[in-house]
Fold this protein.
Amino acid sequence: MTTTRAADGEVLVVITDPVIGAEVGRAAAAVDVALTHVPSDPEPTRWRRARRILVDRAGAQACLAAGLPRRPEVLLVVDGQDLDGGSGGEQWRLAVHLGAQEVFTLPAEADRLVRALAEPAQAEGGGAVLAVLGGRGGAGASVFAAALAQSCAGPVLLVDLDVDGAGADLLLGIEDRPGVRWPQLRTAAGRVEAQSLRRALPRTDRIAVLTGDGPTPDPGTVQAVLAAGREGGTVVCDLPRGDGPSAQAVLAEADLTAVLTSADVRGAAAAVRTARRLRAVRAEAGLVVRGPAPGGLTAPRIAEAVGLPLWATMRPQPGLDRMLEHGGLRLARRSPLRAAAETVCARVPERGRP
C-alpha cells in the first residue's frame, strides 16, 4: 500500500475540534501518514504547496474567510453528531465553496478516511507563478518580468497585465509576430488547454507572450490563463500598480512576488505602500532594488524601511535603451539584469518547477 509521507509533501491539518482531531490522528497513524498541524488560517504559500489538506468545519470557515484559493486534495472531516443536529447542509455548503474533494463523517467513516489517506495525493500539475510589481512608476518592472521569463528554465508563459504599458511583445522584439492578444482571448472563465494556448500566442523559442491593449482582462479569464500556463511550465506575470480584481487574482495564485524599486527615497516611499498592499493579501514577496543610488541609499536600508526581504540588487544595465529599440531584450551571461533575475528564479519552490 502506498502512503503519503512528509517527504512527499506536507499533509496539513486545519482542525480546531479536539474530537475530530483525535480521530484524524488515529486514521493517519494507521497508515503511517505524517501530519502537520497549522493555525486556522494557514499562510497562503503553505496552503498551495501542501500535498493534501484536512479541515474541519471551523477550519473550512476560517480558510474561506481568509480568501484562500480553491485547490485539489482538500478533505473536509465533520462530526457525525453535528449532522444529526441538522447541520448537514452547512457542511456541504462549506465543501462546495472550499472545493473539498470529499467529506468524511467521523467516527462512522473512519475506515474510509484511512483508505483515502493511504492513497497517493494527486500531484498538482505544472510550474510556478511569479508576479512582478513595480514599487513605483518607472521602476523597470516590465523589463524585469521579461528578464525573468528569459532566465527561468523550460517553457515560460509571460503574461502582461499592464495593459497601459508598451507591451511585453515589444520588449522582447516580437511585436510583429502573429498570434492572439488579450482582446481576442475569450474564455468565459472556463478551462484553457495549455498547448493550444501556447500555439496561439506570439512566441520566441521558449517564451509565449500574452499581451495587448484594451480593457484589463476579467479575473476569471486571468485565472484560466494561469492554470493553463502552470500546466506547461513557469508563468511570469507583469502586474500593473493598480489594485484591480485581476491583479488580486494573480497575487492569490502567485508562488512569489518580486517588487521592483529604485534606490532612492521616492522609490522606497512608494514601495512601502506596495508592501502594505501585499501584506494585506499575505503574498510571499521580496524586494529587488535597481541602482544607481544617487543619494547613497543602500539596498539593505531600503528593504528595512519597506519591510520586505531583500531578494536581489542590480546595477544599471549598460545599453538597455538601445537594446530595446533594436531587436528587444537580449541578456548576456554577465548581465546585471540576468544575475538579478536568476537570483529570483532560484527562489522558486521545488514543487513549482516544471
Remarks:
- Residues 6-118 form a domain with the Rossmann fold fold (CATH 3.40.50.2300).
- The radius of gyration is 22 Å.
- The longest helix spans residues 265-280.
- The first strand starts at residue 11 and ends at 14.
